[in-house]
Each structure stands twice: as structure tokens, then as C-alpha cells.
Amino acid sequence: MSKQDLNTQVTEAILKAEALEAKDAHSREARIAFYNLSILEQQLVKQAETTEERNIARRGSIRASLKAGDTERARQLLFLYEDSPDFDAKSNREMRTLVANPNLVYATAR
Asked: What is the DSSP string of 32-89?
């Protein structure tokens, strides 16, 4: 899949997940949408060309996992991303805080 196609899918997945979240953040449909978004964001990390793009996608995949209710997946992603030399310290601290306190994901901006 091309990076452009993947970006389009991520955008569509964000819009769908946010629309479902607005109706009922903890509904099964919203959680599935956020899980699917997390998968797409993880794929985007691999295709991103810049550090900034990778870090945005990393944060997005972790946040989406938490909103999907999958704290274990978020932990695994954080563990994977922490070893990357271009995962900035600020993002790392922010994601560690969210993974340790998953309910904060609803109080912070994307």
C-alpha cells in the first residue's frame, strides 16, 4: 500500500473513531474503530519518512490502543518504540504517563 493510500486510510479511520467516540466513547464499535486505527498508525510508523511523522504515528498508535481499551497493546507498542533512537524524550514521557494512567487519554489532546 502506498504511503498516500495509508495516510488516507488513517484519516478516514480517525474520523470514524472520533464520530463513534462522540456517541459513546466506550461502545464496542468505538473500541473496534480505535483498535483498527492503532493498527493503521503502526503501519504508518514504518512508512513515515521523517522523525516527526514517525513520532506522530507512534503517539497515535498508542493513544488509539488505549482508547480501544487495549492497555497491553499500548504497553507493547511503547516498549517497541522506546528502543527507537528517534522517539523523542517528551513523547516517551507523555506516552509512559498515558500507559500508566489509561483514563488520561480522554483528557489529553491527540
From this structure: HHHHHHHHHHHHHHHH--SHHHHHHHHHHHHHHHHHTT-HHHHHHHHHHHHT-TTS-H
Reduce the DSSP state of residue 26 to 3 states and report it: coil
Taking only the tens place, the pLDDT of each residue in 40-52 is 999 999 999 999 9
Per residue in 54-98, pLDDT tens? 999 999 999 999 999 999 999 999 999 998 999 999 999 999 999
Task: State the Cα–Cα distance between residues 48 and 36, nearest whole angstrom.
Answer: 18
Long-range contacts of 79-82 (CB under 8 A, 24+ apart): 81/45
Owner of C-alpha cell 517528551: 90
Q: Map out the domains of the chain as residue ranges.
A: 3-101
Asked if 2 and 43 count as a contact pair (C-beta separation under 8 A), the reply is no
pTM of the prediction? 0.92
Q: How far apart are CA 81 and CA 109, in angstroms?
A: 20
